[in-house]
Amino acid sequence: MQSRIAMSxxxxxxxxxxxxxxxxxxFAAEFDGSKPTRLVGKITxxxxxxxxxxxxxxxxDSKGQVTNWGCEGAGPGALSRRGWKKGDLKIGDTIVVDxxxxxxxxxxxxxxxxxxxxxxxxxxxxxGDGGPGDNGTDKGSLPGTTSK
Length: 148
Fold this sequence. Notes:
This protein is of the alpha+beta class and 148 residues long. A hairpin with a 5-residue loop joins β2 and β3. The radius of gyration is 18 Å and the shape is globular.
């Protein structure tokens, strides 16, 4: 009887942990390192969440058409260690995002370098994800990124 209870408890714990494990992925699982892109747009939403933070920007093309792009970054802890604060991204602010497109062609980029409204340029990648600029640390190795 005790082994059944222990097994049931183990299954319950495993089922609550598994979704988070699936949510965290390597760069290559979702993004294409051969498709760099630069987005300049206004912030429409910020999700300061684990294991990845997301922010969304409206980008206006040459014909005046607006497309909302999702930008994936590291988790809040890693971003905080680089000097980001939750309030650095405000709705309506214009930012520059240098990243890599999603393999599925959706309007999603891995935000490797973000130029904040105050002019700071910060590495946005997840440490150890294997993407461009990843050197396994919170700072990454992309030129021009700082954590002032």
